[in-house]
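Teaching note: in complex prediction, the entire set of molecules is handled at once rather than each chain in isolation. The prompt given to students was simply: 'Predict the structure of this complex.' The entities are:
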Amino acid sequence: MSNKKLLNYADYLKLETILNSQDLKSAERGTPAHDEMLFIIIHQVYELWFKQVLHELDSVLDVFGQDSVDESNVSLAVSRLDRIIEIQKVLIDQIRILETMTAMDFLEFRDDLFPSSGFQSAQFRVLENKLGLQPNERINYGNQDYKNPLLESGKQVVKKAESEKSLFDLLETWLERTPFLSFEGFNFWERYSDAVRSMLQKEDETIKNNPNHSVEEIEYHLKEHDRAVDSFEAMINPDKHNELIEKKKKRLSHKATQAALLIFLYRDEPILHSPYNLLSRLMDVDELFTTWRQRHALMVRRMIGAKIGTGGSSGHAYLQKTADRHKVFGELADLSTFFIPRSALPELPKNIKRNLGYFFNR
Amino acid sequence: MSNKKLLNYADYLKLETILNSQDLKSAERGTPAHDEMLFIIIHQVYELWFKQVLHELDSVLDVFGQDSVDESNVSLAVSRLDRIIEIQKVLIDQIRILETMTAMDFLEFRDDLFPSSGFQSAQFRVLENKLGLQPNERINYGNQDYKNPLLESGKQVVKKAESEKSLFDLLETWLERTPFLSFEGFNFWERYSDAVRSMLQKEDETIKNNPNHSVEEIEYHLKEHDRAVDSFEAMINPDKHNELIEKKKKRLSHKATQAALLIFLYRDEPILHSPYNLLSRLMDVDELFTTWRQRHALMVRRMIGAKIGTGGSSGHAYLQKTADRHKVFGELADLSTFFIPRSALPELPKNIKRNLGYFFNR
Amino acid sequence: MSNKKLLNYADYLKLETILNSQDLKSAERGTPAHDEMLFIIIHQVYELWFKQVLHELDSVLDVFGQDSVDESNVSLAVSRLDRIIEIQKVLIDQIRILETMTAMDFLEFRDDLFPSSGFQSAQFRVLENKLGLQPNERINYGNQDYKNPLLESGKQVVKKAESEKSLFDLLETWLERTPFLSFEGFNFWERYSDAVRSMLQKEDETIKNNPNHSVEEIEYHLKEHDRAVDSFEAMINPDKHNELIEKKKKRLSHKATQAALLIFLYRDEPILHSPYNLLSRLMDVDELFTTWRQRHALMVRRMIGAKIGTGGSSGHAYLQKTADRHKVFGELADLSTFFIPRSALPELPKNIKRNLGYFFNR
Amino acid sequence: MSNKKLLNYADYLKLETILNSQDLKSAERGTPAHDEMLFIIIHQVYELWFKQVLHELDSVLDVFGQDSVDESNVSLAVSRLDRIIEIQKVLIDQIRILETMTAMDFLEFRDDLFPSSGFQSAQFRVLENKLGLQPNERINYGNQDYKNPLLESGKQVVKKAESEKSLFDLLETWLERTPFLSFEGFNFWERYSDAVRSMLQKEDETIKNNPNHSVEEIEYHLKEHDRAVDSFEAMINPDKHNELIEKKKKRLSHKATQAALLIFLYRDEPILHSPYNLLSRLMDVDELFTTWRQRHALMVRRMIGAKIGTGGSSGHAYLQKTADRHKVFGELADLSTFFIPRSALPELPKNIKRNLGYFFNR
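The expected output is the structure of the full assembly:
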């Protein structure tokens, strides 16, 4: 201790640097706008949190990038996703801070920002790619690539993230090979299909007999219901599933989809606790980004109305579209279509059940 | 005090009644589902809060239903809206409680609920009507009226709310006659139009010269921009505005729209503080209901996937549509399109400025 | 379906009853106070949530009241506590709704409430008792029993909860007998003590050598440190621990304390995931009630200042004291005093480690 | 535009610098601790928000540092405080992010931080001083000045803030000279005193006749009540008030206290809207810092138990004490002790009432 300089909070956190990195563009014109400070600081805070989210996401990718994934690492991945989720909640809530800036206050420095824009956040693009958003799924303007507005250094890291396996990819591979879901010698799918078909049959009758509905509505709902039935047959039949994948109506492979469904259905078995939590957290992450985009779109509408954004985009309409479309794990949420009550679930044979439990209770 | 029974907390709150109003349908079948209790209680809590929101909303309607609205009552209305807003935040946040119920847990009692559904909440329909949602703006199923699924008593109150003046109506009337915005002898609109047109011209150039954009994008944004220009001309020209109203592209009258814009632009003048806060809170209320619907739609997707809802609806897709469309005060948010920086704003003549101030400072 | 009346949302939730249970006392005097509605409704909402918390807590008590606790039931208990936690967050956040009522507005009906008071919430007393708050730990006024202000029916249920095993009691018993922590043939405590003593020795030096501290401060911290050392010796030595229990300085038995520590230290082992989550959630529940009491105390100070409460209590000072003292699982939080880095932790022998894993990976 | 480099988001926000300012101390030892990244980033985020809070606070100090404070600037100050409040809510909520780091995870790098500590945050000390926390009110360790652990540069700015007028000071001066509260020719205090004394008399009887209370409790509450009576007499009588100031039981001057009370009582008058909002927000800011300290203390207890902090302090006990004591605007909250219902309030003479209204309505 004697021969090294004592660590100080301010040095450790590089506060000298961090707290002197706010240069108001409006001040360069000689008329500093009070609210530009907030605008800079909240965006810096967003970027710091994005760095943290990437730090956690990378460690999750590490876990699932291994040839064989230790079950206790799945639980580690869950705790990392828990942290991402808490950060996302703050990302959403702190929009309220930015909303204390009114449209009139923003106008005092808005023109100074042109043509920079949040579309130039390389970290956010990397994040989307690492989660598994595909370049061809993105909503773009005109024919322009989403990487165009980025600085050269940003383009490089985003491109790199495009080329690497995403969390979606790694999850799919992991689900496809989960060995404890082999259920050898137990005809699970036949018995489960019977249960689901009988449930779907009941739904069909429910729709037809709904006393509150008109003929038109009943027809409308029957059509929707038929889609659910088709979708279920694809769950059972790999060929139908692959057809849907080809038509870009599904993305997750048949085998992985089946494994995910099993995890949801038998989540009470000890060895499935962490896998269930994992799928559950991935849906949370997806939904929280959707909520963040939706809140962002609402704020922008109020801030600039139908004006164009500082980056030249048409503002909130675009943001709302990305909220609707930029989803990665939606297929997991859709699986609930095929859930049946525990009581109707095929009971697992004793030897399989033991396989899914703790060694101590053997 | 001696001759009346002492008041007790439990009696005051009628806890004996309130806390014995949870009858599990699943229990009637002999298999009580643990999570049905949560389902009942959270919906009862929602309805209690709806009652409170209606209590506050009614008092706001009272304020603006008067022939002449005292300015200090506007400030009372703002504090009532503040309370509604805090309630709305809780309505959104408590979705997290319901999300602790998993899709599998819901299935244990879901069939018992058929065909009852949240669409049968009379209070929520009354609330929408009192805010100003118009029957013909509603997204309906088939040809069915949204009141059909309600009990007879519910239908009556909802119908009554349809026939009364809504907050939208009363606000419009109040805006149309705000006497302190007469600006007699001051050619405001001409000077303001010049400032806006020069801003719009600048935007036009910004779009054309954006080095990050392709030809297609520039065209796309120019088209959007032209819409903004048209929209501005309607702001100045009552005939154009009325055309848009006839085409159902606008709803708020020309005079009221101009008054709202003036309140936004000159909100720093003392007498406009409360009116500004009022408009601002109305946008908050609108946005928070949108957020509530969006969160609700996400939750339902995860809970039932593509299954039909207990009321026979096709679930989350419908809810998402209402989030996009069931807005009442969106035109206020759009006004920011026409904001210009304070520095470009026509300065008010001294006598008008005094008119908008406190008596004490005369 | 044909022979039973169709279920309706309003009937299912008994809305007719629930929404007609708000009788304003101020209205009986002929001068209804607008804000009394909020006062009644928010308290009814609190009581509904308390009922839900008790519903979840009872199911947790059921799990741990069994002679042998199935490990997968521990995971069920955790999910029930998760729900309690989400409810607690809303209980805290909705204080903001009540804070929209100002002190002046409260005065309009405050005298009408006398002498009823939140102290008369039987459900909250039952809740405290079921968690494990002991009657003799409670902060009382004068010599009065905390049950005195309750209605007779309330007294009965609170008394019953006093006499039953609390969650604290059941947790203690469960911890004492956790079979998978026997560690036979592995001298854990000796090796762990060495590691802790060396850590404590290092802390001792750290204090003595702190260049930022004066002599007085160093003495002060050394005294604190000595207490930590004593506390650690009690962790190792059952006799010392029992002494502290007799002096009311500790409550959790020596054996249970050791088991809890082991769960914290080896929480990465699969079979300890749920037990770790359990302890962690219990600390959360405790802390959230503390936060709720603290926020409540702050609100009351602002609402009535130094006035007496409607129940005759001296208001916020009392509430603040209960926040400081009414804790049940604080000893779990204190265990972190004895945590050491994973790297310094005695490695578990292979056979013990296997015992704590999944059967599948044997 | 052509002759200047186009602004880019990453350059504008200095992301290259900001995102490369996280150097893990544990990495220097060759064993990077995953969670140290979170520890660094969340503290950097806290410091960025502190900078923003100081930016807003400085502008509020500017407003009240003027020789004559324009009423419309009071409303500006309120909107700046609104922003501080939204930031404080995020400061509190983001503790949940840090709580995803467990005590064991913290141990992996805790020793690397010695002896740096949050006590070395110069910005937070400046913030406390600018609000008005007095050096002699601070809870210190031993005889050490709270500035000692700071870097030299930090000491300088904190010292400067000590020597300048705080918000408390400026508020006091502003309250003392509020011209619109002169009430000349209207014997306000006599009539108000009568109303309060009659209210206090009623409280006295309420206590004596409480059927739920024992003799001891009644005595206890009477003693508390007498303190309220004394406190009220000091409100009326400047000499008694000054005595309390000398005994350090009060801080705000008699004249300022009276002005604050008037603002609370007549807040419905237009010219008092902003002053009322101001006082109200100052109580919010105070309470939110208290809540932040309380939550911080709870978190630290769980993270390190009775261990000493990295800065050598005895951790959570100290933090809890600062939560109880480091308050600046508590005297404003206490004023509610002397509120009386609107109906009992002396009615203002017409000419005074007009003085407090808008010019337009004269």
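Point out the following to students. The radius of gyration of chain D is 25 Å. Chain D is about 65% helix and 0% strand.
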